[in-house]
Amino acid sequence: MAGLEDLYREIILDHYRNPRNRGELETPPAHMAEGFNPLCGDEIQVFLHVDDDTIRDVSISGQGCSISQSSASMMTTAVMGKTVDEAHQVIRAFKAMMSIHGDDLGGDSTGEAQEPAVGLGDLEALRGVVKFPVRIKCATLAWNTLDQGLNESASAS
Amino acid sequence: MAGLEDLYREIILDHYRNPRNRGELETPPAHMAEGFNPLCGDEIQVFLHVDDDTIRDVSISGQGCSISQSSASMMTTAVMGKTVDEAHQVIRAFKAMMSIHGDDLGGDSTGEAQEPAVGLGDLEALRGVVKFPVRIKCATLAWNTLDQGLNESASAS
Amino acid sequence: MTPPPDSIDMSLDTAAIKADFPLLKQEVNGQPIVYLDSGATSQKPRQVLDTLDRYYEEINANVHRGAYHIAEQATSAMEDAREAVQRFIGAPSSSEIIFTKNATEAINLVAYSWGRANLTEGDAILITALEHHANIVPWQQLAAERGVEIRWLPLTDDGRLDLTDLDQMLDGVSLFAFSAASNVLGTLTPVRQLADAAHGAGALCLVDASQAVPHMPTDVTEWDCDFMAFTGHKMCGPTGVGVLWGRTELLDAMPPFLGGGEMILNVTREGFVPNELPWKFEAGTPPIAEIIGLGSAITYLEAIGMDAVRAHEVALTDYALRTLRERHGDDLIIHGPVDTTKRGGVLSICYRDVHPHDLSQVLDQRGICVRAGHHCAKPLMKLLGVGATARASLYIYNDESDVDLLSDGLAEAGDFFSHQPD
Amino acid sequence: MTPPPDSIDMSLDTAAIKADFPLLKQEVNGQPIVYLDSGATSQKPRQVLDTLDRYYEEINANVHRGAYHIAEQATSAMEDAREAVQRFIGAPSSSEIIFTKNATEAINLVAYSWGRANLTEGDAILITALEHHANIVPWQQLAAERGVEIRWLPLTDDGRLDLTDLDQMLDGVSLFAFSAASNVLGTLTPVRQLADAAHGAGALCLVDASQAVPHMPTDVTEWDCDFMAFTGHKMCGPTGVGVLWGRTELLDAMPPFLGGGEMILNVTREGFVPNELPWKFEAGTPPIAEIIGLGSAITYLEAIGMDAVRAHEVALTDYALRTLRERHGDDLIIHGPVDTTKRGGVLSICYRDVHPHDLSQVLDQRGICVRAGHHCAKPLMKLLGVGATARASLYIYNDESDVDLLSDGLAEAGDFFSHQPD
Ligand SMILES: Cc1ncc(COP(=O)(O)O)c(C=O)c1O
Ligand SMILES: Cc1ncc(COP(=O)(O)O)c(C=O)c1O
């Protein structure tokens, strides 16, 4: 069985204690997307300011455990300033890392097995989460909400 | 375990092969009551001609197994010509015999434990049925239907 | 009906299979039990019972809720069972597998959720004359509430669906709900053809496969149906679990049915947001042990192979039809198709004028379990002109000796009831 | 909160009880499991597992249908379990005991059958601020469909129902649906008083007793309620079975809910005639083994004695509240009433600023099973101003050592998450 240190890497605890890009953005111009983890009650709001196909600003509010909060914090630093296409690539890469064990039940699992060749940097610290299947939903909550937000702001503009 | 002879007494087989008072009566003056055994599909119609609080005529139609048919046949001979009160006494006595094991689920089971002191005659042959709980509903089908018919014709007149 | 008369190629090692089923070692009246009521419920192999025990002894915990070790194991065992079901019935996605308490709830789910959301006065549903009450009453409830019309597809004389007027009967129909296999006549229906006809008429179709899934390979993708329901306890699984399969697009568009825990994403005082599939339709604590037990039953059946299961039942049904008719001639009526390639191993019997209830009582005295009654198909019984039949139904653990004992029992019952008392 | 500080009179022999539960012999991470999630589901004693095995190995058959030996035995074992439930909850008649798949289905049954038949636009239902989603969502579904108003009875600061405006809130209400015990706060509600108030206002009342029936003597006659729901898996029984109790007059007048086999007296092409109680509400093959297993769980609990169960939980809860508060002081918040005579053994904990999910993860590392989340009571969580809590819930097999281990685990989690990385 995996130990606590596999899950709670220092960098994760750091992002949890000192979250980056926390707060709300004015809507509009920003767009707000909301996500729930029905299992543990975590809620997250992702504020996204997309302009000219580029993420000008992104911030996070809501509440959650160390995994969901640190994942959200790292996510903001990973996608800030990126184009929408680049952001989608990071989302795909991150989700691929989180679904090695095929635990993601929704949707068909064909195809996505290989990890796209996008560097994840600090986000690699979250790799240990896959050994704790219940926590995968914590780690992916912000990402699914970002995905949803990007789609919503694309169709709104 | 009880043997077939406990269930299928000669007198039962006789009533099954040669049912008494079989057929339909004209309605009105007679009244028809219908009963189902939801478990085995047996259906019975009891025709009742009650006049001046007395059962002037009673007959049976429908289909069923040897137990339900013979019980119905014996029932007709037992209540023919009886007053409604006397018929109710026989019904109670018969049902008491059939519920020795408290198998009758409907209603509360307080009180009715003792058998009323009414002679059952040939009907005693059905006593063995209580050893075959599934067949109790077969034996009581005609009686429940008679009971219902008596109540209906009482409220109709 | 063409195999060589005496030697039968039994594809299954029934002796080995029988040994897996503890109940079949029971005695009744000092005689080994002869279980011929698998159409009502099947017996359970040791392997499934062990799975249930292991679940309760090692990982019992409520699912989807706890972050602790055994809760994770229980959740993943349950979701593994969902994937086993998906594979077993050829469904495209495991999120289309919804666990219910039995097939009846599965059909009611469609009637309440899809039916109430889509049907109103003037709409019509087509069912068939051989349906089980589970595929009749939910539609009658809907019909009574909404003024929906119910049409009945008739049967041929030998108990197959009469398709002569199918297209005409489908005209204006929103849903065609039919069984893949009859629990009274054994009839197998041409599911793909019926689904195509339904779709051609712009209708959806629901397949009650309660008597098919346990007995032959099932592939909802090949069937091209829209909903499919079956029940765990008839296929070596525990009681208390059934399955509804449905197409994602349909399930996604349907409102939830039962409300409560698990089926929500969020609840506020103002209202609730339903969860994703499949959980949207699984309110409250699911039958966890039972679902895992069903997964184990599927593993057991897959090890035998569903083709082999079917081949065994065809051969044994053929043996039964042949030997019973040879011996009992006109004393015996067996309802349903004679061609064993068009029927399952369900034998509804009328023997002389012995009432089915009495017949089964005499058989019981010899330890032979058959079911007497209307088999929850009263409209069909009425059509057959009988109040009840005695039904012997075959499964993987039955062999020729069971059929022979049944045959002896019929003869005894005939003697007993025709013997004149005076 | 007045017992002597150190010696506790534990009325139960928890060591002997623990030995009855195979799962409690498991190890997690090399440490004996400490199961503190009985509020989600209880563990099952050997006696219940043996009953399940014996059912499947000796008498497995479909009920109410076969005239043969094992079918009779299965039927009578199931009906015996119904009588056990009747006795256990003090119901006047066993025909008022309706078996469902869980408490959630039981409440939905009332919402669909009684609710749809009786409520329309302008009617109102009163629920409370501490309900489980199972006693919220079915009413929200009904409300959305029918334009029925839902009112929420508020709470006091220490998590009891605030009855100040009860009579006013009941004005014009048709149904008052409330829990006998909260699964988050442990709060016990004054059921009889609430039922009297409801009746005084001309309303019916439904009691969600899912967290009460497993833990203390229950008597629906004394409660004088109209409907009562609970679930088998939280009281040493198997998954897959729940119970609705209702007054005969009410159940008799209600239309059927699920349609199918067993629940009919007759079916023709024109329509169906519902069966008598209780079968009218039990469509399809019931969870036979599970019902019989629930009967066995009741036998097990009765042997211990429900008064003793309650006394044990009061004493242990008192020990827990006392020792946890002594050791952890302001680091720890335990929600709900402090008076152990007004609460059950459910401890919803917030520890420093450690998120409940992280807390339960650290505890899991020590083999301690607690549940983190919203406990299917999101409106209550919102009122408490938290997204989630960690919940430890006690049962007959827990003792002081389990509480002590929990206490150690809290301290460790605090250390782990407050330790500064740089
Ligand atoms: C208070 C309360 N009501 C209802 C339920 C629902 O029980 P089930 O999930 O077995 O339907 C629960 C348990 O989760 C509960 O704690
Ligand atoms: C054809 C058919 N449909 C539906 C059912 C209902 O299954 P269950 O009682 O498990 O819901 C049965 C079995 O009784 C059946 O034979």
Attribute tags:
heterotetramer; A: 157 residues; alpha+beta; Sufe protein. Chain: A; three-stranded antiparallel sheet; 5 helices; 3 strands; 16% strand; C: alpha/beta; Aspartate Aminotransferase, domain 1; Aspartate Aminotransferase, domain 2; seven-stranded mixed sheet; 40% helix; disordered N terminus; binds pyridoxal-5'-phosphate
Task: Please explain how this structure is put together.
Chain A is α+β, with helices and mostly antiparallel strands. Chain A has a single domain (4-156), classed as Sufe protein. Chain: A (Alpha-Beta Complex), CATH 3.90.1010.10. Chain A has helices at 4-7, 10-17, 66-79, 84-98, 133-156, and strands at residues 31-36, 43-51, 54-63. A 3-stranded antiparallel beta sheet of chain A has the order 1-2-3, covered by helices on one side. Chain C has 422 residues and is α/β, with parallel strands linked by helices. Chain C is 40% helix and 16% strand. Chain C contains 14 helices and 17 strands. The longest helix of chain C has 23 residues, at 306-328. Bound molecules: pyridoxal-5'-phosphate (2 copies). One pyridoxal-5'-phosphate sits between chains C (102-104, 132, 134-135, 179, 183, 208, 210-211, 231, 242, 376) and D (261, 284-285).
